[in-house]
């Protein structure tokens, strides 16, 4: 029904963004809402409408590849829209596709909500069936290892916290001063936790 919506982001929450287009505010659930900024610039967001008996939900994506992989993932038994969003929030489409094509179950189970059974189902259902998405992926050689999400296992949560703090008005220079301390703190595992600790550190700097 919809391919994309072009409008202005008027609100960013931990779960969704609001995109206003021609006087209508569309609630879009995205893998990482903090990838978007509230501003007056027009933004084109690719969308997918998920229809159930009790709800019609819109999902938004920064790229066409991201949306098409989302559509493939929700066709896998055991993966719903929320599960697909969690996978896309934790890894890039390229890494997910590589893992599926290389049958790397150990990599796939690192995603939230993906156990061995679901990882095997992803490989059975999707390997060799990702079509044009393969055009943007280079499969590693047998000697190479698939890249992990980063040295910090909670890198995604840390980056979300940095984006949220930027939206609150903190400068890149200020955030760069506290980021190394946050990366070294193994007790921090959530976006909220990183934000709270970052705010404490930023207040000490003033």
UniProtKB/TrEMBL annotation:
HAMAP family found in the cross-reference section: DNA_HJ_migration_RuvA
Carries keyword DNA damage?
A: yes
Q: Which family does it belong to?
A: Belongs to the RuvA family.
> What species does this protein belong to?
Lysinibacillus odysseyi 34hs-1 = NBRC 100172
Protein location: Cytoplasm
Q: Which GO terms describe its molecular function?
A: ATP binding; four-way junction DNA binding; four-way junction helicase activity
InterPro entries per the record? DNA_helicase_Holl-junc_RuvA_I (IPR013849), Hlx-hairpin-Hlx_DNA-bd_motif (IPR003583), NA-bd_OB-fold (IPR012340), RuvA (IPR000085), RuvA_2-like (IPR010994), RuvA_C (IPR011114), RuvA_C_sf (IPR036267)
Could you tell me the gene encoding this protein? Answer: ruvA
The domain-related comment in the record is:
Has three domains with a flexible linker between the domains II and III and assumes an 'L' shape. Domain III is highly mobile and contacts RuvB.
Query: Which SUPFAM superfamilies does the record cross-reference, listed alphabetically?
Result: DNA helicase RuvA subunit, C-terminal domain, Nucleic acid-binding proteins, RuvA domain 2-like
Q: What keywords are assigned to this protein?
A: ATP-binding, Cytoplasm, DNA damage, DNA recombination, DNA repair, DNA-binding, Helicase, Hydrolase, Nucleotide-binding
Instruction: For the region Domain II, give the residue spans.
Output: 63-140
What positions does the domain Helix-hairpin-helix DNA-binding motif class occupy? 71-90, 106-125
Q: Which SMART domains match?
A: HhH1
Major place of localization? cytoplasm
Pfam families registered for this protein in UniProt: HHH_5 (PF14520), RuvA_C (PF07499), RuvA_N (PF01330)
Cellular compartments per GO CC: cytoplasm; Holliday junction helicase complex; Holliday junction resolvase complex
Domain III as annotated region, ranges: 153-206
Q: Which GO terms describe its biological process?
A: DNA recombination; DNA repair
Q: Subunit notes for this chain?
A: Homotetramer. Forms an RuvA(8)-RuvB(12)-Holliday junction (HJ) complex. HJ DNA is sandwiched between 2 RuvA tetramers; dsDNA enters through RuvA and exits via RuvB. An RuvB hexamer assembles on each DNA strand where it exits the tetramer. Each RuvB hexamer is contacted by two RuvA subunits (via domain III) on 2 adjacent RuvB subunits; this complex drives branch migration. In the full resolvosome a probable DNA-RuvA(4)-RuvB(12)-RuvC(2) complex forms which resolves the HJ.
Task: State the name under which the record lists this protein.
Answer: Holliday junction branch migration complex subunit RuvA
Function statement:
The RuvA-RuvB-RuvC complex processes Holliday junction (HJ) DNA during genetic recombination and DNA repair, while the RuvA-RuvB complex plays an important role in the rescue of blocked DNA replication forks via replication fork reversal (RFR). RuvA specifically binds to HJ cruciform DNA, conferring on it an open structure. The RuvB hexamer acts as an ATP-dependent pump, pulling dsDNA into and through the RuvAB complex. HJ branch migration allows RuvC to scan DNA until it finds its consensus sequence, where it cleaves and resolves the cruciform DNA.
